[in-house]
Automatic annotation (TrEMBL):
The lineage of its organism: Bacteria, Bacillati, Bacillota, Bacilli, Bacillales. InterPro entries: Cell_wall_metabolism_enzyme, Dup_hybrid_motif, M23ase_b-sheet_dom. Pfam families: Peptidase_M23. Keywords: Coiled coil, Membrane, Transmembrane, Transmembrane helix. It comes from Tenuibacillus multivorans. Residues 50-98 form a coiled coil. This is Peptidase family M23. Residues 207-301 form the M23ase beta-sheet core domain.
Amino acid sequence: MNLFKRWRIVVMSDAKEGIRQFSLPKIIFFGFMAIFLTALLSVWLTIHIIESLSVENEELTASLGEVNTQLTEQDEQLQQYEKDRVAIQNRLDELHLLEEQLKDMISSLNPDRLAAFEDGPKGGEDFIQRDDVVIEQASLTKDFSGDYNMIREEVPTLVEEYEVAIEELSQVKEQLKQVPIYWPADTERITSEFGNRVDPFRQVEAFHSGLDLAGPWGTEIYATGDGVIEFSDRDDSYGLSIIINHENTYKTRYGHMARLNVEEGERVKQGDLIGLMGSTGRSTGVHLHYEIMHRGEVIDPYPYMTFIQRVLNE
C-alpha cells in the first residue's frame, strides 16, 4: 500500500449545486485513525486505572476505618484501664489505711513484749502442795481467722476482709477490756513462774500462786483490765497490794508495791497506772507479785499476759 497516494472524495448535492471534490492523502487518514485509536486506548486505560484506584481506595478506606475502630477501642480500653488503675490504687490506699487501723488496734490491746524467765527477787504467799487442792490451768488461744483482671477482682474482696477483720477485732477488743490480758508492769524480767517452786524463805517445795516480775524501784504498774478496785492497802505477806475486780469472774492481785495510786471503789481502765513497784511484805527484793483469780481459783497469768503476742504469731 502506498501511503503517499491520495483518496479523492466526491461530494454531490442536488442538481443546482455543482460537484465538490476533495483530495485526502492516505497518510493523513491513517495518521488520524492511529491518533484516534491511541486516544481511545488511552481513555480506556485511564478509566480502567481509575476504576482500579477507586477499588483500592475503597479497600484502603475500609481498612482505615477498621484501624480507626481498633484505635478507638484501644483508646477506650486504655481509658478503662486508667480508671481501673485509679480505682485499684484507691482500694490499695484504703487497704493500707485499714492495715494501719488494724495495727493500731492490735498494739493498743497489749504491749509487744517477749518475756524471759530469770533469777531475781521473789516473794508472795507460798502454799505447801496438797493433793486435795485443785488449781485451774487456764489457756487463752483464739484463731482470727496473676494478672490485672485477677487483681481488679481480688482487691475489693481484700478490702471487705480487712473491714470485717477490723469490725471483728473491734468487737473482740471491747470484749477483752475486762479480761486481764494487759502486761502488768513496765518490765519484761520474770523471776518466778506460777506453780510449784522452792520457797525462797523456807527452802521447801511450795506452790506459788502468781508470777513475779522484777524491775527497778518505782517501776510503773498497770491495771491489766477494766474493773473496780476491791482492795488497796497493806495485806500481810503481800505488803502494799491491790485487788481489782474485773466484774466478769476475773480478779487480779498486785503485791509488794512501793506506792498505791488508787483507792477502794475507784474504777480503772485497762492500762491505767495503779501504783509503783517496791519490796513491801514478804519479799526478797524489788518486784511485783501478780495473780489472776478466775471464779475464785488462782490460774497461771502468763497465757493471759502473752495472749495477743501468741495470737499474732499463730
